[in-house]
C-alpha cells in the first residue's frame, strides 16, 4: 500500500492508504505504485486519481509539487 497525503496552506486536505496514484505532472500524467523510486516533481492543475480497494476515485488539485519517498506520496498544492 501507499500513503497518499494532500496538503494545502490551510492544512491536510486528504490522507488515505491507496494502491495507485496518478498525478497531472507538468510534463504529462504519471503513475506511482508501491515501491516507486523516490522523486520530486511539479504538478499542474487537474485531477489526482487514486485507487482504494477496487474503486477508482478522484481529487481535484491546483498547481503544486509532489514528493514520492518510502511508499508515501505527499502532494503540496496551492
How would you explain this protein's 3D organization?
By secondary structure, the chain is mainly beta. It has a single domain (about 1-75), classed as F0F1 ATP synthase delta/epsilon subunit, N-terminal (ATP Synthase, domain 1). About 0% of the residues lie in helices and about 75% in strands. It contains no helices and 9 strands. The strands form 2 sheets. The protein has a 5-stranded mixed sheet with strand order 2-1-9-8-5, with no helix packed on it. Strands 4-3-6-7 form a 4-stranded antiparallel sheet, with no helix packed on it. A hairpin with a 2-residue loop joins β8 (about 65-70) and β9. It is globular and about 30 Å long. The mean pLDDT is about 95.
Q: Short summary of the structure?
A:
This protein is an all-beta fold.
Beta content: over 45%
The name CATH uses for the topology is: ATP Synthase, domain 1
The number of helices is 0
Structural class: mainly beta
- Helical residue percent band: under 10%
- Mean residue pLDDT: 96
What is the CATH-assigned architecture?
A: Sandwich
- Give the number of domains: 1
Number of strands: 9
Amino acid at each position: 500500500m501507499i500513503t497518499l497525503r494532500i496538503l494545502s496552506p490551510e492544512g491536510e486536505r486528504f490522507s488515505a492508504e491507496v494502491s495507485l496514484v496518478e498525478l497531472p505532472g507538468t510534463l504529462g500524467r504519471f503513475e506511482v505504485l508501491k515501491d516507486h523510486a523516490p522523486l520530486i516533481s511539479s504538478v499542474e492543475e487537474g485531477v489526482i486519481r487514486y485507487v482504494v480497494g477496487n474503486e477508482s476515485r478522484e481529487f481535484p488539485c491546483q498547481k503544486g509539487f509532489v514528493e514520492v519517498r518510502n511508499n508515501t506520496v505527499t502532494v503540496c498544492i496551492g
